[in-house]
Amino acid sequence: MNTNDITIKSVNSASTLAILGGEPVITGTPPAMVPGPYIDDKMIESIVKTTKSGVWCRIQSPNGTVPTFEKEFARFMGTRFCVSTGAGTQALNTCVEALGIGAGDEVITSPYTDIGTISAVLFCRALPVFADLDRESFQLDPDEVEKKITENTRAITPVHIGGQPANMERIMAIAAKHKLTVIEDACQAHLTEYQGKKLGTIGDLGCFSFQASKNIACGEGGAVIGDDEALMDKCFTVMNHGTTRTGQHALIGAKYRMNEFEAALLLPQLETLKARHDSRNENAWYMRAKLRNFPGISLQKLYEGTGTSAWWLFMASYKKEKFNNAPRDKFIKALVAEGVNASSYIKYGFHKSDVIRNHILDLKVYNKFYSAARLKKYRDELECPVCDLVCDEEMITFDVPTAPNKSYLDKIFNAIVKVYENRDKLNSI
User: Fold this and answer.
1) Fold of 41-268
2) Is 3-37+273-346+391-428 a CATH 3.90.1150.10 domain?
3) What confidence tens digit (pLDDT) does each residue in 293-318 have?
4) Are 335 and 328 within 8 A, CB to CB?
5) 395-398 sheet: strands from edge to edge
6) Residue 338's Cα: distance from chain center in Å?
7) Are residues 300 and 287 in contact, defined by beta-carbon separation less than 8 angstroms?
8) 29-47: pLDDT as tens digits
């Protein structure tokens, strides 16, 4: 991308906000961003080769592109085994089913996530129990997790939101204390490191998404990784229509297979993923340094031991008291008008979803396997005030350029400065 295609206007306190008729700080086509698909010639060649081979499904060849990707992704992540799936949600579903979690069981997770995290639990007719967030990191608060444990709790699913790690040291200690399984939702966290380990390798099972917006992508696609051979064999069986590696029908299983075309897109990306990962880290840390002491912007807290990160989203908190008490959404609208791809991200936590509050609690299966008292208590405790605050008032996100591009990050920063210098105008938007 030629950054000369992007222009920046002078920024001073007298400049008029673009949303009020002024010139935007950033114009032109932005550079390639994360989220966004990466494409190169090797990927195209790989698709053509797969097309010509006539091997389009993993069961056609034990040495096909899908099994090869599984071996390479496991090696890349530093784990013994990988089972690919057709989506990140399917990876999560596979884990829940492989662990035998079902009606009457409970899984503790974050309300601040994609629906896939929740649907994996609902699909097995287990009860998703929501623990509130740590306000500074936007990750599961371990203290809140421990409060939610009951005799029916089977697993904890931390979500590494934005590509940054949850407090895995505390979560793993809680899981060990209560003899619970940990399923890491690392769907946004490819290559993120925590205390010397890659996310997805710390819990019992780790799940990844390769959906089109992810750092490594094939449109749809997912993977489960782990070191327990017996458990990973069960994951394979669940994924493979309930059929074992030796062809025996052993379980009730969905068909969650990744196809050869998806793997053909993914395999070449492993060659470039580390370099692209390093570029995003360089960009993200540069932006964090510029915003570290900026009034009204509180950067996402990273837990001790966080190494390089996926930076699927660059996340921060908006503090309206520093912006003339203007609501967060007006700040975002002003930034967008200046040419910044800013967002509030998730509109509300899933503890507020009608599916959770009403639909599932009316289903026959939930009323059969959970007592009326438990369902009432569940409904009464569907409160996550920190998550509400993050969703309603504080969360702001920016995209991170894929390639090194400090000049473009300077433009984003200058747009933020411009909005701040015109904060007295925000309430008129």
Assistant:
1) Aspartate Aminotransferase; domain 2 (3.40.640)
2) yes
3) 999 999 999 999 999 999 999 999 99
4) no
5) 297-299, 314-318, 395-398, 342-343
6) 27
7) no
8) 777 665 567 889 999 999 9
